Amino acid sequence: MSGNQDTPKLDNTDVPETGNDGGEPSSESQQTDFTGVEGTKSDKQKIDILLKATGNAPIMKKKKWAVDPDRKIGWIIEFMKKYLKLDRSEQLFLYVNQSFAPAPDHIVKNLYECYGSDGKLVLHYCKSQAWG
Amino acid sequence: MANDREVLREIWEGRLPVCFQLNSEEVYSLQAPDPYYLMVPRLSYFPLVTDKVRKQFVRYIQPDKQEAEMWLDFNGQALRWHYPIGVLFDMYVSDIQLPWNITVHFDKFPEEELLHCPCREAVESHFMSCVKEADVLKHRSQVVSSMQKKDHNQLWLGLQNDKFDQFWAVNRKLMEASGDEVFKYIPFRFYCGEGPFIQRLVRPVTEEGQRKTLQHLIQEVFPNETNRKLKLMCHCAVHNCKDVNN
Known about the structure:
The complex is a heterodimer of chains A (about 130) and B (about 250).
Chain A: E1 9-10, H1 14-20, H2 27-35, E2 47-53, E3 64-67, H3 73-83, E4 93-96, H4 108-115, E5 121-126
Parallel strand pairs in A: 1-3, 2-5
Antiparallel strand pairs in A: 2-3, 4-5
Chain B: H1 5-12, E1 15-22, E2 36-41, H2 46-49, H3 51-57, E3 71-74, E4 77-78, H4 85-92, E5 100-105, H5 120-139, H6 142-146, H7 149-160, H8 164-174, H9 214-221
Parallel strand pairs in B: 1-5
Antiparallel strand pairs in B: 1-2, 3-4, 3-5
Helix pairs in contact in B: 7-8
Main location (chain A): cytoplasm
Protein name (chain A): Ubiquitin-like protein ATG12
Subcellular location (chain A): Cytoplasm; Endomembrane system
């Protein structure tokens, strides 16, 4: 679970803002965008996820995010596509343990409970199917 | 696992009689089509068994909808194609009346509730992901990654074509203990109504080395709810579905 104050929060309300931002938003502006929303801080402990690019996938400037435990993988993929300015038709695949692609309705809490380590869940992403 | 062959066979052969009916609001022709009846395997997925249903109903709907993705509902509840048919039945049909009456739609795809299923390959990659995930839990992914592409194909074709022997010739390897160790963890999912399922890391044996029972599992996952009625479904490399009242 997240207790890390340095990790920007990933909230529902932030997605449109991120989508409208410039091509490469600075790290500072991201910090403000994602931690500044006091109202959305829930009792639920957020979960730290670490997003690692594989193959030809573009690197995310900010790799570590704190997300609500009941967020779905599909939501994270949509968020990443906006953040990375991918076209809607472009595909993005997320992998756990570099071995399987969880279904879009898999929630972060389940994945963290089963595959998290060192207080975070590592997800690899790529633009073509990497591990089948 | 191999000793349970008869049980595995019984589970594999579980079938459900389903009555498919076209949503009456989407009937475009003068006369509504007759319902379409099928016996469907519990362990399969709807997109693998409903080609004929689509073919039957597509002639009766608006011509501009005929290319649309077909989706199903039971009692107003959209049915997720990526859950095994038996799991869906156990989740939504509390008062069992057969055949299972399912409504067929081509219009108003519920984007919020369902994933799109563009083709059979989508079912295949979903299924293989489930098999891989289960193997990560059971054998740290070692069995599935040591398999060849043809083994993966055989597993999938066995399920798709309802061939028990073909499927189990490969699945057997996924269900074996590696060396002295039983499974590292038990792959399972608790489906709780419409919400997301629950999945946790649970070892198959207690700290004293005793094999865990279903009761242990329920207590570990729901430590505070031992007195509540739970409906449980077990879903692993081969999807065994059971109802248990605790």
